[in-house]
């Protein structure tokens, strides 16, 4: 009876491998959007499995805001090297210098939204017909309704009300020359699935995910890291705390949580018992109820 | 822990959101910050009670208009099972959304308001679930608290439904009396309905046996892509990558390649984590053959003594999904397994009235939400099984060549 059973993690793995191969078949010029975060590294690891013993037909594309944690960048370079990927980096700073975007000002300034322009420019410049991302439907309500093969028009925009129905395992990747697709092989994974998979596959992780001592301060209920990109305001003060990060994003908008989890077992126990969503620590999602949808419509990740 | 994919369907007021909210809440799948956000949004909109639909209605238009536009996917887990739930809006585009959600589901939750009994909508939903070959149907007879938890009311709904279900092709139908609002028979067995001897809903979801729904009899392997390392240390490697659609394939098995009809043996099978002795659905594997055949994407491996049908002509039950009606003069792109071809709608045999299940032989073009039996002619032959036997090799979608939109979903008869 149990002979033809697969665990839920196996089923998700087989589904993701199928989607990644479909993406490669439909799109000859695709890349993996790689942030160095847990979802994108799981995706990159799966893509390597999907084409073994050949190399995956994708490069890793990183949009560097210039506000990344140094640990993330160090990890990004090491991961690409160890997993045999070509790494392509495009910088928000270059978009600012070229006058394509203007830096936000004020104490809560973030380059989070500016990334979209750099990303869309990179997609045009590299002539990408698809960008694979580690986005999951459980992450955020706007993502709960996104397709696995998600169409973007010639302006890179998403039209959530006019998405193509997706049935069985049949993915429709037909498009006009200037359009592109975002492909989400981890659509059906949850945060806990991602952590369990990382543990099972013994995948490397940026050190930010593990508890460490760091200089932090509190702003609007979010515990932020002290950095040159985010100066303290007059009434704010920082202190050293033992923290870790549940998501890896910009230093300006990614909040830390107080945690003593220094290994995967403890992190998984913590995630399983968590009463807050992982994006609850993301300052960028809290600008409004539909902050994610609004950014996604513009062409965000 | 295994995985169960399910779909929920029901009318606007029959308590679907409440039931869903309770399932998510009681399996601790709603986070505190999500809950606070939903409460705040509900208050801002002036709702009398926290509207649980806001948990899934994430899009701006949905939140503003208080409607559900699209299928939403929710995830929850118990120590026994992980659940992927497709929540389908019950109005307007119900057929299109339900067909989409049902295409990958193994089980359907059908909500019925015990006071209203069986409605037209319920019959439609039940019919679509069986049309899409969902093997397990759980009829949740809801709002039992409003009839004083009376067995007679529950029995009446059950009898109504069973009379209707005689005309359906459902494998396994269960009935659970419950109150989503008060939690009776959702997670805990209700003390207020001692006459009900079955299990509460969550336990039923955790234990329903779905493994034998998978076709393990007819080996079908649609080829996604051919893997040939250009560099590295494996110059002679040539593997066929794909996801097993049905049946079991083993090392040493003789297989036939379609369309050529040449046979070969399986030399090795590679899973995502290394060699495996056998492959079954839904495994994604790479197959090495011991003869070098000219194989490409869209081809199929089967067993010499168990082959799919091959033809350019198909009889299909088609659900029209697009707002633009079908144009009989148009050629459409057709996707089937990993194969893509063009097709022409030769004839609309009849439209199906899904409320009465009557067949109307009207020669009008199909419009959105229409279900119809059609005759298709394809440019290239397909290797197919009937949808009844095989969900993967029996399903197609049609694409409009001008807009590239997915306009229809079809089940091969």
Features:
heterodimer; A: 301 residues; alpha/beta; Rossmann fold; 10 strands; globular; B: alpha+beta; Elongation Factor Tu (Ef-tu), domain 3; 7 helices
Description:
- The complex is a heterodimer of chains A (301) and B (413).
- The longest helix of chain A is centred in the first third of the chain and has 19 residues, at 8-26.
- Chain A has 301 residues and is of the alpha/beta class.
- Chain A has 2 domains: 2-197 and 290-298, Rossmann fold, CATH 3.40.50.620; 204-285, no CATH class.
- In chain A, strands 3-2-1-4-6-5 form a 6-stranded mixed sheet, with helices on both faces. In chain A, strands 8-7-9-10 form a 4-stranded antiparallel sheet, with no helix packed on it.
- Chain A contains 8 helices and 10 strands.
- Chain B has 3 domains: 2-213, P-loop containing nucleotide triphosphate hydrolases (Rossmann fold, 3-Layer(aba) Sandwich), CATH 3.40.50.300; 221-302, Translation factors (Elongation Factor Tu (Ef-tu), domain 3), CATH 2.40.30; 309-412, Translation factors (Elongation Factor Tu (Ef-tu), domain 3, Beta Barrel), CATH 2.40.30.10.
- Chain B contains 7 helices and 23 strands.
- Chain B is globular and about 70 Å long.
- The longest helix of chain B has 15 residues, at 151-165.
- The two termini of chain B are 35 Å apart.
- In chain B, the strands form 4 sheets. In chain B, strands 7, 8, 9, 11, 12, 13, 15 and 16 form an 8-stranded antiparallel sheet that branches. In chain B, strands 2-3-1-4-5-6 form a 6-stranded mixed sheet, sandwiched between helices.
- The relative contact order of chain B is 0.11.
- In chain B, helix 4 (94-102) packs parallel to helix 5.
- With 413 residues, chain B is of the alpha+beta class.
- Chain B has helices at residues 16-26, 32-45, 60-65, 94-102, 120-131, 151-165, 201-207; strands at 2-9, 72-77, 81-87, 107-113, 136-142, 172-177, 221-222, 225-227, 239-243, 249-250, 254-258, 263-271, 274-276, 278-279, 284-289, 300-302, 309-320, 331-336, 339-352, 359-360, 371-384, 395-399, 406-412.
- The chains are: A alpha/beta (301), B alpha+beta (413).
- The interface between A and B is large, with 61 and 74 residues.
């Amino acid at each position: 009876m149990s002979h033809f059973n697969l665990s839920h993690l196996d089923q998700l793995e087989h589904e993701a491998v199928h989607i990644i191969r479909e993406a490669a078949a439909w799109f000859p010029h695709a890349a993996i959007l790689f942030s160095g975060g847990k979802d994108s590294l799981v995706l990159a690891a799966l893509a390597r499995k999907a084409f073994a013993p050949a190399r995956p037909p994708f490069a890793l594309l990183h949009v560097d805001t210039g506000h990344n944690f140094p640990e993330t960048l160090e990890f990004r370079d090491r991961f690409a090297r160890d997993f045999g990927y070509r790494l392509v980096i495009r910088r928000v700073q270059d978009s600012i210098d070229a006058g394509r975007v203007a830096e936000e000002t004020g104490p809560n300034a973030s380059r989070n939204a500016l990334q979209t322009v750099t990303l869309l420019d990179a997609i045009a410049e590299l002539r990408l017909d698809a960008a694979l991302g580690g986005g999951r439907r459980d992450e955020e309500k706007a993502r709960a309704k996104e397709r696995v093969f998600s169409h973007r028009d010639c302006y890179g925009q998403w039209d959530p009300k006019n998405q193509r129905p997706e049935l069985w395992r049949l993915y429709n990747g037909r498009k006009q020359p200037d359009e592109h697709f975002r492909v989400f092989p981890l659509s059906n994974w949850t945060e806990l699935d991602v952590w369990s998979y990382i543990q099972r596959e013994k995948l490397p992780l940026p050190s930010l995910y593990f508890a460490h001592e760091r200089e932090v301060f509190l702003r609007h209920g979010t515990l932020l890291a002290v950095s040159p990109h985010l100066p303290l305001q007059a009434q704010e003060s920082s202190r050293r705390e033992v923290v870790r990060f549940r998501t890896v994003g910009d230093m300006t908008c990614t909040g830390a949580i107080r945690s003593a989890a220094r290994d995967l077992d403890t992190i998984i126990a913590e995630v399983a018992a968590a009463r807050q969503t992982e994006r609850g620590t993301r300052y960028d999602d809290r600008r409004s109820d539909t902050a994610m949808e609004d950014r996604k419509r513009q062409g965000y990740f | 822990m295994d995985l169960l994919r399910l779909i929920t369907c029901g009318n606007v007021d029959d308590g679907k959101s409440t039931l869903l909210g309770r399932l998510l809440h009681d399996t601790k799948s709603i986070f505190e910050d999500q809950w606070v956000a939903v409460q705040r949004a509900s208050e801002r909109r002036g709702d009398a009670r926290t509207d649980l639909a806001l948990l899934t209605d994430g899009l701006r238009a949905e939140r503003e208009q208080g409607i559900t536009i699209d299928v939403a996917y929710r995830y929850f887990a118990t120590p026994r099972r992980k659940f992927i739930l497709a929540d389908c809006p019950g109005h307007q585009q119900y057929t299109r959304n339900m067909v989409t959600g049902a295409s990958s589901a193994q089980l359907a939750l059908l909500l019925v308001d015990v006071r209203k009994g069986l409605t037209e909508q319920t019959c439609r939903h039940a019919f679509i679930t069986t049309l899409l070959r969902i093997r397990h149907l759980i009829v949740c007879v809801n709002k039992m608290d409003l009839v004083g938890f009376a067995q007679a009311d529950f029995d009446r709904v059950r009898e109504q439904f069973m009379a209707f279900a005689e005309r359906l092709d459902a494998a396994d139908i269960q009935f659970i009396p419950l109150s989503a609002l008060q939690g009776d028979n959702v997670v805990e067995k209700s003390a207020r309905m001692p006459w009900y001897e079955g299990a509460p809903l969550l336990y039923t979801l955790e234990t329903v046996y779905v493994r034998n729904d998978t076709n393990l009899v007819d080996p079908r392997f649609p080829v996604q892509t051919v893997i040939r390392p250009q560099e590295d240390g494996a110059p002679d490697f040539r593997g066929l990558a794909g996801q097993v659609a049905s049946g079991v394939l083993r090392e040493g098995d003789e297989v036939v390649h379609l369309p050529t009809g040449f046979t070969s043996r399986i030399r090795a099978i590679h899973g995502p984590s290394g060699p495996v002795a056998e492959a079954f659905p839904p495994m994604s594997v790479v197959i090495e053959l011991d003869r070098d055949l000219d194989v490409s994407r869209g081809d199929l491996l089967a067993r010499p003594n168990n082959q799919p049908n091959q033809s350019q002509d198909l009889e299909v039950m088609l659900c029209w999904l697009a707002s633009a009606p079908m144009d009989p003069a148009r050629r459409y792109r057709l996707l089937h397994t990993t194969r893509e071809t063009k097709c022409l709608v030769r004839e609309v045999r009849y439209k199906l009235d899904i409320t009465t299940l009557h067949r109307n032989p009207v020669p009008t073009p199909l419009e959105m939400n229409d279900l119809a039996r059609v005759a298709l002619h394809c440019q290239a032959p397909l290797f197919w099984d009937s949808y009844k036997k095989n969900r993967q090799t029996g399903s197609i979608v049609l694409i409009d060549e001008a807009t590239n939109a997915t306009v229809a979903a079809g089940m091969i008869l």
